[in-house]
Amino acid sequence: MNTTMGCPHFGVGDGFEPFDLTNPFPFYEKCRKESPIFYSEELGYYVVTRYEDIKNIFKDWKTFTSQNAQSPFKPIAPKAKKMMEERGLVGLSGLSGRIPPDHTRIRRIVSMAFNLARIKKLEPRIRELAKEMIGDFKNDGHAELVKQLTYDLPAYVIFMLLGVPKKDVKKVKSWAESRMLMTWGNLTEEEQLVHAENMVRYWNYCQELVKKRHEKYSDDLPGDLVKLQSEGHEITDHEIAAICYSQLFAGHETTTSLMGNGIRELLLHPQSWDAIKAHPELIPNAIEEVLRYSPSIVSWRRHSTAESEVGGVSIPKGSNLLLVMGSGNRDDENFPKGGNFDIERKNAKEHLSFGFGIHFCLGSPLAKLEFKVVLEELTQMIPDLKLKEDQEFKFAPNTSFRAPLALEVEW
After folding, report:
1. How far apart are CA 10 and CA 1, in angstroms?
2. Which residues contact 105 (CB under 8 A, 6 or more apart)?
3. Rounded CA gap, 354 and 279, in Å?
């Protein structure tokens, strides 16, 4: 490692490929040992790879604000930016990009509607969906699980929660993918225009959800938020639509990824698959270990509001930081033999995959419930499941969201 202008960094050929998440873990391990915090010239970010450093940054929301969490990594091209602005798509943030006092106010109100009781009420329908979808291919002897199970099921669930009709699932999923690529991807100017158009449609759809709840109450999340607003709670229509915009993306995209990563790891470690099959009570901790070992979101962002020091490295005021939870989750200092997949790991729950502190993910109980139900049904309905041999796993080119795009299995 050498230092230039106070920025620790590896030389050219260091192996850091921020938009390639095929298998970043060997590089992460190298970073933790040799340069746990380094500056990426390509991204313009300090990259933080150790568990304690990441956790401390998450805790200190005043010094390390989340206001850049949803900012595009690659600047939006003028044509795409103009089109989005002209059609009202500006200044959006659900919760992850907000800071107190707005974050505190909105999160408190959303928590009143998006609570454990509402989540628990969804379990029978989640189980019904899982049985139905697995049943559709159970007798085929083979399946592509992303296409036939994990892509749609979380969408159906979150869309139920938000009152989105089943017929709109494919459409909204495609818009959500555009949001992921526009924010965390590496698109050309021409590609940005296409995805910007989808994002505008996505935003208009969320605004319409709120408008319809004003016209007629519906027993769903936007309906409850509109009702709370009418009862005097301080939340605007724009903020409710922004929550829907965020949840319609985060509420299914990351759960799809959790399921894909989890099933893949369990089948790559067949002794673990056999263990949860024989002892379903191991499933909750197995899910925590999947979240630790192969998280849906491998990195998240912060912006420094003051000069500070992290892990012995000076961070200037105004710096951007990339917190690599996918690296911190395998840090041997916190997780002994962190590079091993162990579904009985005692402290698996200490992972940082849902964040930490005031921005800890509100939807984490729902994501874990969905995957728990899927694993319970899959291990019982198709106990002899295994990965199809010689398949190549591909991952979407972006900095943060990691999951196989396809998962071929047979039995």
Report:
1. 5
2. 234, 235
3. 26
- Identity (one letter) of the amino acid at 267? L
Which residues, 6+ apart, have CB-to-CB distance to 241 below 8 Å?
203, 206, 207, 209, 210
Q: Do residues 327 and 49 lie in contact, with contact meaning Cβ atoms separated by under 8 Å? A: yes
Q: How confident is the model at residue 2 (pLDDT cuts 50, 70, 90)?
A: very low
pLDDT tens per residue, range 289-321: 999 999 999 999 999 999 999 999 999 999 999
| Summary mean pLDDT of the chain | 93
Tokens of 78: 């003028």
End-to-end CA distance of the chain: 49
| Structure tokens belonging to residue 37 | 């915090």
- 387 DSSP β-pair partners: 409
Task: Check if the beta carbon of residue 47 is closer than 8 Å to that of residue 40.
Answer: yes
Q: What is the CATH number of domain 2-410?
A: 1.10.630.10
Q: How confident is the model at residue 402 (pLDDT cuts 50, 70, 90)?
A: very high
Q: What is the CA angle 82-86-92, rounded to 5?
A: 90
Place of tokens 């698996």: 348
8 A C-beta contact, residue 299 and residue 20: no
Q: Inter-axis angle of helices 283-293 and 237-268, to 10 degrees? A: 100
The DSSP output letter for 307 is -
Instruction: Enter the DSSP assignment of 304.
Output: E
Beta pairing partners, 144: 408
Q: What pTM does this model have?
A: 0.92
DSSP 8-state code for residue 336? T
Contact 240, 113 (CB under 8 A): no
| pLDDT, tens digit, 9 for 90 and up, residues 21-32 | 999 999 999 999
Residue type, 345: R
Q: What is the DSSP letter of 76?
A: P
- Give the SS3 label for residue 143: strand
Q: Domain coordinates of the chain in residue numbers?
A: 2-410
pLDDT at 13 over 60: no
Short-list 70, 30, 58, 35, CA closest to 323: 58
